[in-house]
Structure formats: C-alpha cells, structure tokens
Specification:
It is a single chain. This protein has 139 residues and is mainly β. It has one domain. Helix content is 14%, strand content 40%. It contains two helices and eight strands. A four-stranded mixed β-sheet has the order 1-2-8-7. A four-stranded mixed β-sheet has the order 3-4-6-5. Strand 7 and strand 8 form a beta hairpin. The longest helix is centred in the first third of the chain and has 10 residues. 16% of the residues are buried.
Length: 139
C-alpha cells in the first residue's frame, strides 16, 4: 500500500502536462496543443508519476513509422502507447478529438483513448492552460 502525505506547498504545474486516467481496463491520455506539437516533432512525449522513493510510473506516447496499428507496450514502471505515424499526423492536423482503440489484453480488451485536451467551460477553473478551444462553448 502506498501512503501519500502532503508536505510543504503545492507546486504550480508546468504549462502543459499530459494527463493520464486509468479506470479498470481503460487508459485515457489527454494532451494539449504544445504536447501534440512536441509529439509530432520529436516522436515521443512522456510524463512520470513518482509515488514514493524508487516507485514510479512513466507513461508515454510514441510515434512509429513501422507501426500498422495503435498498440501498447509495457515494462516494469513504464507504459508506452505506440501510434502509427500517419494516424498521429492526421489526428494532429485534423479536427478529430481523439484516437480510440480496443486492444486485446488476455482478459478481454484494453479500451484506449488518446484525446486532445479541451479548455474547461468553468471560467474559474485553473486547468485550462495549453488546451484546445472547447467546441461546446467559450470560457
């Protein structure tokens, strides 16, 4: 069991941090415009969650010229979502909100969503930095 204790002051988040949501057999990554741009230019973006000394999880999006479809690879402490280059470029350049896939995982399927991060509709919400304009309205 991991115990998390707050010590000191909350740290102001960087301008843009890829968001991860895990719920059962589903994985959702949300990325802002600057991250999508970095992904296209560099071929990979990643973030790391540090739970305790020596206990962390790195999650990443990576583009592969040789990939035929969306896939997930993992190792202890790391999960990488692989995107075919053409799929990633079309998503980055287009209006589609996300890339979605259901990947066999040995006990059913992993529901995967990679989505553009939209601005919150609540104008008082501080998590709208480096986001896409929300198609449902303006803040």
């Amino acid at each position: 069991m991991i115990s998390i204790e707050w010590i000191g002051e909350w740290v102001t988040p960087r301008e843009s941090v890829m968001k991860l949501r895990i719920k059962g057999d589903s994985l959702r990554l949300r990325v802002g415009p600057s991250e999508v741009e970095r992904l296209i230019v560099s071929g990979r973006i990643e973030e790391t969650v540090h739970f305790a000394p020596g206990v962390h999880l790195t999650y990443a999006l990576e583009i592969s010229d040789g990939a035929a479809s969306v896939s997930v690879v993992g190792s202890p402490g790391e999960v990488v979502v692989i995107l075919p280059a053409g799929v990633a470029q079309a998503w980055a350049d287009g209006d589609d909100v996300g890339i979605y896939a259901a990947l066999p995982n040995g006990s059913g399927s992993l529901e995967l969503a990679i989505e553009k991060d939209f601005a919150c509709l609540d104008p008082g919400h501080g998590a709208s930095q480096d986001t896409y304009p929300n198609p449902k309205g303006a803040c």
